[in-house]
Amino acid sequence: MPSPPSKEFLGTSFVETGRELPSTLRAYAPILVPLILIALQSVFKNTLAPEHILNTIFAYIGWPVVAMLIGVALCYLNVKDKETKKKFFNPWIEDALRTSAMIIVVTGLGGSLSEILKGTPAVDTIAASVAASGIPSIFLPFVLGVIGNMITGSTTVGVITAASLTAPMLGTLGLSAEAAMLAARKK
């Protein structure tokens, strides 16, 4: 026995509203085109001479950021109704920026701080302080990973931040990059 949809979903299907779905090719293009562009960049980079025109072109359009932007544009083009485009465009952009801004800022700040630490004697001071405190050196990337995860809510960003901050100190702490990365991962 069929079950009727909830009241809030009545009249919202493509059949009921008279809207048409995009073709199969147009529906999959936002996913496939970026994958193909990124793959072609890798293939051309490894098979053609560095000065070849395809390398130059695909170094740009095969860069994951640009390839994904092309995918987003293709996705947006699949929305046919102008009223729907107007209604959803700003919220889509706002949601995307809200989601990604914190991750980008924290990762960028972690990388910047890492570069600053590399150029100052602070690296040796911090590493020596950790070593002199009797706390195992592996604890530093772990704590930095936890802090990064708590700030952003993302384990990946926490690991990247901890790695970028700990990288200049690895030699002084006597840690391998792999051990520091695993400690920052904390699972």
How would you describe what is shown here?
- The chain has 10 helices and no strands.
- The longest helix is centred in the middle third of the chain and has 37 residues, at 82-118.
- The mean pLDDT is 80.
- The protein is 74% helix and 0% strand.
- With 187 residues, the protein is an all-alpha fold.
- The radius of gyration is 24 Å and the shape is extended.
- It starts with 13 loop residues before the first helix and ends with a helix.
- It folds into 2 domains: 7-82, no CATH class; 103-185, no CATH class.
Radius of gyration: 24 Å
Number of helical elements = 10
Helix fraction bin: over 70%
Domains, number = 2
Largest sheet: none
Order of helices and strands: HHHHHHHHHH
Class from helix and strand fractions: mainly alpha
Shape: extended
**Low-confidence region ranges:** none
- DSSP E strands, number: 0
Mean pLDDT equals 80
The rounded distance between the terminal residues' Cα atoms is 47 Å
Strand content: under 5%
What does this entry show, briefly?
The protein is an all-alpha fold and 187 residues long. The chain has helices at residues 14-17, 24-47, 53-61, 64-77, 82-118, 122-132, 139-152, 155-166, 170-173, 177-185.
Name some characteristics of this structure.
extended, 0% strand, 187 residues, 2 domains, mainly alpha
Protein topology:
Blueprint: H1 14-17, H2 24-47, H3 53-61, H4 64-77, H5 82-118, H6 122-132, H7 139-152, H8 155-166, H9 170-173, H10 177-185
Helix pairs in contact: 2-3, 2-4, 5-8, 7-8, 7-10, 8-10
